Structure formats: structure tokens, C-alpha cells
Amino acid sequence: MRTINVQIPNNEYDVVIQKGILSNIGLYIDKSREIVIISDDNIPKIYLNIIKPLLGNPLTLFVPQGEVSKSMETAYSLVNTLIHKGVTRGALIIALGGGVIGDLVGFVSSVYLRGVEYIQIPTTLLSQIDSSVGGKVGINAISMKNAIGSFKQPKLVIIDPNTLKTLDQRQISSGISEMIKYGLIADKSLFYDILNNNIFNSIEDYIYKCVTIKKDIVVEDELDYGRRQLLNYGHTIGHAIEQYSNYNLLHGEAVAIGMMMMAKGSHFEKDLEDALVKYDLPLTYEYDKKSIYNIIKTDKKVNGNKLNIILVEEAGKGFIKTINVHEINERI
Fold first, then answer.
1. Predicted pLDDT of residue 144
2. What is the DSSP string of 189-208?
3. What is the per-residue pLDDT for 316?
4. CATH code assigned to 169-330
5. Please, what is the end-to-end C-alpha distance for the chain in angstroms?
6. Farthest-apart Cα atoms in the chain, separation
């Protein structure tokens, strides 16, 4: 078992990583508490069959699978259901699923009765190494991804790599895209290990490395005013393309395309391309440049007419550069 302690002042918590840990979930969660599980309607039933009896068969709520559920309508519906079911402020809410569930449930937990505790149990590779850690929670507006949100740290993150066995290859690859990002911005050896080795022989180690990188960055800059912005490498353009595709592209796929655009002309561009091809990730996407630019202009990182972009000097060394918003056109 691997344990990573996220030492955020007044919000300290552990990330616990172990194959098969769901079968021992009662060691980490007090089943005498008022518990609510929220998941999507496509979650493999095997997870619920394992954990519900160990937690006293708690109230379980479902939302539709996919980005469509990261909406004000879904959040409002969940809040009303919690009220109707008499869920109190002393409850513990469990987010069981991928990044959409983690973002949505974290957001609902942050606003319901002015805040209730929640735990992340991420079941996709992307959510295990990225979105479940750090406390960014939120939902989408019609014209902007993650436009409505807050910072709400979980009380605990439980990662069971065995859940990856139920994912299709596209979802696995989407997560590896974020893994590649970590290597490029912070750990050269991680990047080249992903490129040259079979990561599935020791996937638990790779999850641990990525979560450790994220933890170190988040502890230094919880509220995303400085170094945490490094985690957005490939995301400014990637988010725009993801939205432009009407979310037909998975998040990691869009980020892969964004990273390629930001790596143009770099000495590691070919290595990045090889890594993305190795894991069946897209390099390009057909889009309208003006539409992408208009989406980017609404990005949360835009401040006046300035935009912070993330570049990589060499593998393992990311940095932040402030540009005029219109200069992003040179990348798209």
C-alpha cells in the first residue's frame, strides 16, 4: 500500500493507493456515519456490490454518464434529492467514478448546507492521477468548461488500480495523456519511462509518481495563483478543442492535441509525438481556428487581455509565460 499525505493547512488528507483496497473499505470509512454514494448510471456494478455491504448499504444516487452531468441542472437536482432524503450536514458523501463524478460531487458537497465532507474514490486512470487530488471541483456553463466551481478538498482519496480493468483502451489512453503531461512539466525520467517502457507492468508505481507530483504542486499553490498553473500544460487549447468537439473527444485526447500544439518547434516534439502514438492518442483535430480562439478568450486564465500559457523548456521543466491573448493564435 502507498500513502501520500497532502499537507494543505486545515485541509490535510491522505491518498491511499492499493490494488484491491475497495474490499477493505470499511477500514477507512466509518460505516456508522450517515453516508451517501453518488455515481453515474454506467458504473460497473461490481464496485457497488463490493463497497455497499461494507458501508451498511447507504443511500446511493446516480446521474447520467458523461460531461452532460457537469451542469447546474444536475447539481440542483442532486441538492434537491439530498434535501428530500433528509441528508444532514453531518453526512459523508462518496464520489464513486471518474473525473466528471468527482468534479460534480465535490461541487455539490461544497455548496450543500454550506459544505459537507466528501471522499473521492476515482475509478478511471485520469481521475486517479489528476482530478481526484487537489480540491478543484465544479460544473460547466453552456459556453465555458468548469466555469462554476470552488475549492473543496476531500477528506480522503482511495485509489484501487484494479478498477482500471473495467476501462476500455480509449479511457486508459486518456489517462496516460495526463501522465505524459506530468512527465513533461516536472519529471523527465517519468516521461521517458512512459515512452520506452510498459507502464502496465507497474501501474501502481506510475499512479504514485503522478499523484506525488500533483501533491507537491498543490501544497505549494492550492488556489492556482502560481505554480499550480503548470498543471494546465496542453489544457488551454485542449479545453477549447474538447468543448468545440461537443465533448466527443475525451479530456485526455483533447489535452494530447493541446500538448502537441504547445510543443511545436521544441526539441522533444518528436518524442512527445511518439509517446502519444504509442498510446493511441490523437495528434490533431479538424477545427475552425476562429471558433477555438473565441473559446480561449473566455478561459479562466485570461486576465484582462493577458493569458498565462504553459510551455516546456525541456522534458521535465515546465514554465509559465504571460502573453497577450491574441498571441495564442500563433499556436492554433
1. 86
2. HHHHHHHHS-GGGGHHHHHH
3. 97
4. 1.20.1090.10
5. 43
6. 58
How high is the pLDDT of residue 265? 93
C-alpha–C-alpha distance, residues 188 and 198, integer Å: 17
- Residue 234, amino acid: G
pLDDT reported for residue 299: 84
Helix axis angle for 169-186 and 251-262, nearest 10°, is: 40
Distance, CA of 5 to chain centre = 18
Cβ atoms of 98 and 104 closer than 8 Å: no
In the chain, domain spans: 2-166, 169-330
pLDDT tens per residue across span 229-277: 999 999 999 999 999 999 999 999 999 999 999 999 999 999 999 999 9
What torsion do the CA atoms of 299, 78, 97, 41 make, to the nearest 10 degrees? Answer: -120
- Cα Rg of the chain, angstroms: 19
What is the CATH number assigned to the segment(s) 2-166?
3.40.50.1970
Nearest to 316 by CA among 129, 126, 182, 175: 182
Amino acid 143: pLDDT: 83
Q: CA-CA distance, 224 to 313, in Å (whole number)?
A: 21
Q: State how beta strands 92-97 and 117-122 pair.
A: parallel
Cross-strand partners of 63? 40
The set of long-range contacts for 261-267, using a CB threshold of 8 Å and a minimum separation of 24, is 261/234, 261/237, 261/331, 261/332, 262/233, 262/234, 262/237, 262/309, 262/310, 262/311, 262/312, 262/331, 263/312, 264/331, 266/312, 266/314, 267/314
Enter the DSSP assignment of 128: I
Neighbouring CB atoms inside 10 A of 84's CB total 8
Low pLDDT (below 50) residues in the chain: none
What is the predicted pLDDT for the residue at 145? Answer: 86
Strand partners, 39: 62
- Look at residue 239 in the predicted model and tell me its pLDDT: 94
Q: Is the separation of the CB atoms in 61 and 38 below 8 Å?
A: yes
